[in-house]
Amino acid sequence: MGQTGGMSENRKDVAARHEAVCKNFSRIVDGVRDWSAPTPVEGWQAVDVVRHLVEWSRGMFGSVEGVTFGQIGSVDADPADVWRHHCEQMQMLLENSKADNLVLENEHFGKQPLVDAVANYYVPDVFMHSWDLATATGQESGLDSAICHQMLEGMEKQEEMLRASGQFGTRQPVADDVSSEQRLAAFIGRDPYWAPPAE
């Protein structure tokens, strides 16, 4: 999902990937009936998945000179509406040619083109959290198995660095016959067999 070499990501390609990943996540969001439902992320309810994606991305990318996000309301009041507006604003940012010249400077990720940062950190995060929200609310994740496999291979090559970042939990054991998305979930510290508690 992110860079494979030293060249900057093509903005139109990143915009297309963002649109596709967010379209699937939006489908899951629209299917949520209980925003207080527990999720595979310990201590998180369904609403917290949306809160996480919205807050960290707007905080990071909104700090870039030349980026201005509009108001989107309260996640707690209407998670689906907030997500829809946030997604639209991120897409508009990527479709604007001015984004080609924007640079993110961050203490954790250093200095890099904004488009690369979106491709490397945000789009994969939306992709992976799609499993969390879908699993929490009894929906199909809709994740492409080939992309799951590709992401896992890339992350395994950087495992030591990723673990050191503190952003991922302990890798969980999986059986040989689990799906590629379950393997990806296990790598980032989720219980790949997690299911909502019985009512």
From TrEMBL:
A Pfam family this chain is assigned to: MDMPI_N
Matching InterPro entries: DinB/YfiT-like, Maleyloyr_isom, MDMPI_metal-binding
GO MF terms held by the record: metal ion binding
Domain of life: Bacteria
Domain (Mycothiol-dependent maleylpyruvate isomerase metal-binding): residue spans on this chain: 20-134
Record's protein name: Mycothiol-dependent maleylpyruvate isomerase metal-binding domain-containing protein
Organism: Luteococcus japonicus LSP_Lj1
